[in-house]
Amino acid sequence: MKVSKENIVGLVTAVELFTDSDEGIEWAGRSEGENPDWPGVYRVLAANCGQAGRLEEGRAAVAELKRVAPDITVETTRVQMPFENPADQERSLECLRKVGLPEH
């Protein structure tokens, strides 16, 4: 798995820019090319697509997420990826639900 500083910055930026989901999607897309087997790329992409209402793209990101992490669910994401602010985490999880990530 190849993870460069640029990729990390891109993913962090995507999360931070959650209110500008189109830019978050762009950053996640850049990271996807470098890390096609890293679940974080698809999780961030799916959540930003859900936020932006780009449901078809979000469902495709969930399909890729399930390809690289078959057991991932909303609940495992909640446990494994806590946010400092619980409201931000719930908003992210809700976006993942919108694009089809299973609850359990």
Describe what you observe in this structure.
The chain has 6 helices and no strands. The chain is mainly alpha-helical. It has a single domain (5-98), classed as Serine Threonine Protein Phosphatase 5, Tetratricopeptide repeat (Alpha Horseshoe). Helix 1 runs antiparallel to helix 2 (21-34), helix 3 (39-52) runs antiparallel to helix 4 (55-68) and helix 3 (39-52) packs across helix 6 (86-98). It is globular.
List the helices and strands and how they pair.
Blueprint (H helix, E strand, L loop, with lengths): L4 H12 L4 H14 L4 H14 L2 H14 L5 H7 L5 H13 L6
Write out key terms for the chains shown.
globular; 104 residues; 6 helices
Write a short abstract of this structure.
The chain is mainly α. 71% of the residues lie in helices and 0% in strands.
The count of helical stretches stands at: 6
Q: What's the architecture, going by CATH?
A: Alpha Horseshoe
Helix coverage percent: over 70%
CATH class descriptor: Mainly Alpha
What ranges have pLDDT less than 50 throughout 5 or more consecutive residues? none
* Domain module count: 1
Q: Helix-strand pattern, N to C?
A: HHHHHH
- Taking all Cα atoms into account, the compactness measure Rg is 12 Å
Largest sheet features: none
Which shape, going by the Cα principal axes?
A: globular
Structural class: mainly alpha
